[in-house]
């Protein structure tokens, strides 16, 4: 399964409108969906994750859950995304070797190489721009994207990407961009998805 393009991450859950918004985005051509939700009730997370997973199956794209291997296993998601304070990579890889495992490496190409060697399927760098989605996001120097020659797995950039700065990250050797508010914060979801997909094509990151 090739990973790249427009990687959509769900916003904090505020009601069922998020499902309608997500389906509009998937229908418009999003390439990957990640379900991220800090809801403390596992049952509610499971119900929501199943709805998102069914959408991904309908549109034929990978479905990733954030930091919860049990949730991934129960709903049958394609993979998991983990960060520095999440479940250990070694545990997930040994327990679920067939699943997609993505890792946040923030501003460290060295960590990206390490996780590549351990068997990660993709890595994510950022944030390079301020983001309201994650107020405590680690801020990184965008110059590190010039130091990815030893990374042969897909690389995504995440954090505060919008129309005003997307060209700045797409000039680097990356596989895609991960976005939240860039898609969910407006009313013209189809137009926003189309805009970012066209930018990815323009920079040769996805095919025409």
Can you walk through the features of this model?
This protein has 208 residues and is α/β, with parallel strands linked by helices. The chain has one domain: Alpha-Beta Barrel (TIM Barrel), CATH 3.20.20.70. It has eight helices and eight strands; from the N terminus they run E-H-E-H-E-H-E-H-E-H-E-E-H-E-H-H. Strands 1-2-3-4-5-6-7-8 form an eight-stranded parallel barrel, surrounded by five helices. Helix 2 links the parallel strand 2 and strand 3.
Q: Please state the second-level CATH architecture.
A: Alpha-Beta Barrel
N-to-C CA distance? 19 Å
CATH homologous superfamily (4th level) name: Aldolase class I
Query: Number of helical runs?
Result: 8
* Cross-sheet strand order for the largest sheet: 1-2-3-4-5-6-7-8
CATH class: Alpha Beta
């Amino acid at each position: 399964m090739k990973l790249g393009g427009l990687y959509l991450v769900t916003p904090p859950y505020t009601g069922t409108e998020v499902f309608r918004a997500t389906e509009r985005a998937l229908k418009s051509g999003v390439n990957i969906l990640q379900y991220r939700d800090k809801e403390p009730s596992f049952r509610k997370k499971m119900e929501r994750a199943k709805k998102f997973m069914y959408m991904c199956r309908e549109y034929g794209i990978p479905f990733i859950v954030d930091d919860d291997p049990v949730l991934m296993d129960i709903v049958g998601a394609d993979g998991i995304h983990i960060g520095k304070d999440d479940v250990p990579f070694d545990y997930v890889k040994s327990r679920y070797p067939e699943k997609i495992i993505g890792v946040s490496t923030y501003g460290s190409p060295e960590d990206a190489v390490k996780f590549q060697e351990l068997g990660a399927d993709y890595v994510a760098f950022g944030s390079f721009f301020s983001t309201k989605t994650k107020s405590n996001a680690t801020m990184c120097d965008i110059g590190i994207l010039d130091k990815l020659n030893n990374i042969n797995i897909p690389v995504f950039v995440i954090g505060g990407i919008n129309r005003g700065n997307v060209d700045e990250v797409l000039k680097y050797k990356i596989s895609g961009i991960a976005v939240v508010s860039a898609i969910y914060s407006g009313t013209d979801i189809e137009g926003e998805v189309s805009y970012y997909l066209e930018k990815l094509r323009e920079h040769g990151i996805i095919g025409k």
